[in-house]
Amino acid sequence: MITVRRADSLGFVQSASLALRCHFAFATYRDPAYQHEGRLRVLNLGALCPFGTYSLGPEAEVDILTWVQAGSLTVQVDDFAPESLQAEGLHLISAGSGCQMLRWQAGAEGTSFLQFWFLPDTEAGTPRQESRAGFSQTEDGGFRILASGFPEDDPEETETVTDGAPVALSAGARLLHAAIPAGEGAAYRTSPARDLYLVVVSGVVRVQETVLKAGDAVAAQGVTTLTVMALEQTEVLLTDVAAV
C-alpha cells in the first residue's frame, strides 16, 4: 500500500530561530493520523536562521540522525566533542540510557536540514555519537546507504572510517539517499514486513502513478520494491524500518 503525504499537509512548529515541518507528532504538533511510520518516530524538515539554535533534552532510547541539506551546522551533545557539518553531512546521536542536552547551531548563512528519529531494537546502552562529512554517490544514481543497523551493510569494521561507510545505528533500520538524473530511476528492494518512507528533498519524481514534488513524501507498507522515476534532477531520502 502506498500513502501520499503532501508538503502542505505537514505539521508546523516555530520559534524565534527555528521552523520545523513535521511529518509525525512532535512538540506542539499533534495529529492522531500521523504518529509514526513503523519504528520511524520523527521526520522533521528544519530551517535555522543564521547562528540560530535548536535545543532538546533530555532524550533517551532513540537514534537521532541529522542530515544537512544546505548551509552548515554544529552539533553539541552533553560532553561529546562538538561536530561541525556542511551540506550532505550526517550526524548520529544514539541517546542510549540518556542525553541531557542536545543542541544544533547554524552557521553564518543559516541552514536547512532533515532529522530522523528511529526507535532502537537493543537495550539502552552508553550514549554515542558518529558523523560523516559526506558520501560519494553511486554512478547510476541509485540508492546509497547512509546509516544502517545491519552489520552486513558494512562488512569491514575498522576503528577509523575512511571509505564513507554507513553510520552504525542501534535501530534495525536504514537511511538511504539517491541523487537521480532527469529521466532516470532508482529502485529499492526490501521484505514485506518492512515500512518504507520516502521524502523528496528536491526535484520532481513519480512513484507508481503519483507525482511528488519537494517536501512531499510517500509511505509504502507491504511493498517489496519501491521504484522512483525522476521527472527532473531529483534528490530523495528513504527510510526502511520494521513495521512494528
UniProtKB/TrEMBL annotation:
SUPFAM superfamilies reported in the protein's UniProt record: RmlC-like cupins (SSF51182)
Organism annotation: Acetobacter persici
Domain spans labelled Quercetin 2,3-dioxygenase C-terminal cupin: 166-241
Transmembrane segment boundaries: none
Protein name (record): Quercetin 2,3-dioxygenase C-terminal cupin domain-containing protein
